[in-house]
Amino acid sequence: MKSQEVSQSNNTGKGTAQVGSLLGSYPHRLDPKRRMTIPATLRSRMGMPEIVYVMPSLGGKKCLEVFHPQAFEMRLDELNKAALTDEAAADFVTMIGRVSETLDVDVQGRVRIGDALLQHIGVDRDVMIIGAVNRLQIWAAGNEPSLDEAFGKLAASARTIHF
To answer: Where are the alpha helices (DSSP H) in the chain?
Structure first.
């Protein structure tokens, strides 16, 4: 098994399940129509969503981040509370709307990420999908953090965030 399950999800209906932690690494090749299949294990942990949201990383990483609707909409709720006269919030809403996408997930778990986003991270055909606890990261194959780097930085990073 490529992923470890950390919490249980209770499927109560399509797209309405409790979201579990998303972990593991999954190499993948885009199909001829440039679609990516979200691995079944991860889709299940996401509650089998019918849509997902994708955006460039805000943390300066050269990857895309894919969110379950519940996780993304929770973040958008904070923006909805901002005053319409809040220039910083208005600018952010414009930019996130410009560079993010809502993707339909087909019955086989495939999504079609737009060419602009794929080009932004340098994807040709091969990607690495990494479970990042509450979202997925999509990296151009070969640009993702190496296992040696991940193993080497894990303890120091855990201490920094008091994990």
So the answer is: 40-45, 69-80, 87-99, 115-120, 147-160
Q: What's the CA gap between 145 and 54, in Å, rounded? A: 20
Beta partners for residue 130, in sequence order = 25, 137
pLDDT in tens, 45-69: 999 999 999 999 999 999 999 999 9
- pTM for the full predicted model: 0.82
Question: Any idea which of 2-11, 15-24, 129-138 has the lowest mean pLDDT?
Answer: 2-11
Q: For the chain, what is the total number of helices (H) and then of strands (E)?
A: 5, 8
> 153 by DSSP, 3-state: which?
helix
Tokens of 79: 């923006």
DSSP string, 16-44: -SPPPPEEEEEEEE--TT--EEPPHHHHH
